[in-house]
Amino acid sequence: MDHYDLVIIGTGSGNSLVTPDFDDKRVAVIESGLFGGTCLNVGCIPTKMFVYAAEVAATIRSASTYGVDAHVDGVRWRDIRDRVFGRIDPISDGGRRYRLESDHTDAYLGRARFVDAHTLEVALNDGGTATVSGDQIVVATGSHPVVPEQVALAGVPFHTSDTVMRIDELPERMVIIGGGYIATEFAHVFSSLGVEVTLVVRGEHFLRHLDGEVSRRFTEVATDSWDVRLRTQVTSLTTAGADRVDVALTDDSVVKDALLLVCTGRAASVDDLDLPAAGVAQHADGRIVVDEHGRTSVPGIWSLGDVSSDYQLKHVANHEARVVAHNLVHPDDLRSYEEAFVPEAVFTHPQIAAVGATQEELDAAGVPYRVKVQEYADVAYGWAMEDRTGFCKVLASPEGRLLGVHIMGHEASIVIQPAIQAMNAGWTAQETATRQMWIHPALTEVLENALLGV
Ligand SMILES: Cc1cc2nc3c(=O)[nH]c(=O)nc-3n(C[C@H](O)[C@H](O)[C@H](O)COP(=O)(O)OP(=O)(O)OC[C@H]3O[C@@H](n4cnc5c(N)ncnc54)[C@H](O)[C@@H]3O)c2cc1C
Ligand SMILES: NC(=O)c1ccc[n+]([C@@H]2O[C@H](COP(=O)([O-])OP(=O)(O)OC[C@H]3O[C@@H](n4cnc5c(N)ncnc54)[C@H](O)[C@@H]3O)[C@@H](O)[C@H]2O)c1
């Protein structure tokens, strides 16, 4: 058995824990899947590379609005795919090689399982077994797609976000189950690239965790753009070809010969870890319980990212990794997860970004507020773009303290950033609007005007 100062399970955000503080210590990283984790290999990075290609196609399709005649001559899917993974795969390979060849770090390629609070058994991908122990262990095993039993047991071919980006040919039709982040991002990607997309959403609206006005107004746009079936579920699935399925729905329709993409949420990757063997406490949904410093219920075992966080977002996992990296070597000066204002963005069409409370959350908590909604169309750049759907909503306390900002529209993920900064700095809406100049006539004026309005 090899003993280490630090053992890290999972090379997503966990990989960044190997800071110079560990240069003279022994570190083991254990990884069962693609080196670099979800974000790099099957999450944020490839999806946004596909989103960018989709936006290029969508921009060309709408060009005539502005007097520029252009059309999409064709979509070379394999070239799009190979550009994405031709850039990503070498980074993942390089990361794995670096850890394998590094002097003070050992890499174990296999699946880790706790034997006790300091010992792990690794079922190596090459068939062997290794046992390692650590003074400190960090569990950063992330999350994985949840597939409803109805699909898993049907015996039909289906995809999740783990596989759909590597398909060989674009299908003519795609059925996407789910109405959350991944469903709406892939609907944008594949429809922009010419696939007929049907979205099967069991609820009334898309993205129901967002502010109600965003969720409602996005659902209206989505319903105009895609074949959207709200309040609908799958009744049966029948194999129609090598990678094709006939999907029967509760509205009595059947979508024939479609590629099936399941986007029904993600669950903490804990199943193989045998956390009870180490005594690590878990929430009812499987996530590992941690305190604000990233400590689990067992001294010496830490956790961060999707496997333990309240959020499944990379910028949160990165933040938590920075905190844990510090805490591992400064036991008398612990830092905390600071997650009061966690921003998020959905890279669908139109883009969506949010930070802070929704109007519904304020209502439910009985918190008094003022609200201002500013349309993109009513600021210069939105007007130039002939934007008809975008808006920015600011919620503030009666004294002007910023409580929540919600944006739907072009580059919402960028437009929102001054509000995130202001909320962290404790600036009021008035201070945020007037303490700085806002570039005219940039799109950020939509936020400036909403702040002045509120
Ligand atoms: C399609 C998609 C798009 C996304 N887009 C965005 C986005 O735009 N912005 C954003 O903020 N977030 C996005 N996310 C979420 C983001 O990817 C995750 O929040 C983030 O990657 C979580 O990082 P992590 O370090 O917690 O886990 P991961 O990166 O998942 O790393 C965990 C690693 O642990 C390994 N592992 C698991 N179990 C074991 C075991 N028993 N033994 C050994 N190794 C194990 C896994 O193979 C994996 O490599 C997206 C997610 C998906 C799926
Ligand atoms: N841009 C980003 O930051 C980004 C992008 C993609 C993913 N993510 C992260 O990944 C997480 C997972 O994404 P996701 O889209 O899979 O989850 P999600 O929670 O956003 O959406 C899941 C959807 O599936 C539906 N659903 C769940 N079970 C179902 C069932 N049995 N039948 C039919 N519908 C069902 C839900 O009602 C919901 O509409 C997100 O919560 C997010 O944190 C982030």
TrEMBL record:
Domain of life assignment: Bacteria
Pfam families tied to this protein: Pyr_redox_2, Pyr_redox_dim
Keyword terms, alphabetized: Disulfide bond, FAD, Flavoprotein, NAD, Oxidoreductase, Redox-active center
Needed co-factor(s): FAD
Alphabetized PROSITE patterns for the sequence: PYRIDINE_REDOX_1 (PS00076)
Domain FAD/NAD(P)-binding: 4-321
Similarity section: Belongs to the class-I pyridine nucleotide-disulfide oxidoreductase family.
NCBIfam families in the cross-refs: PRK07846.1 (NF005884)
The protein, known as: Mycothione reductase
Organism the protein comes from: Mobilicoccus caccae
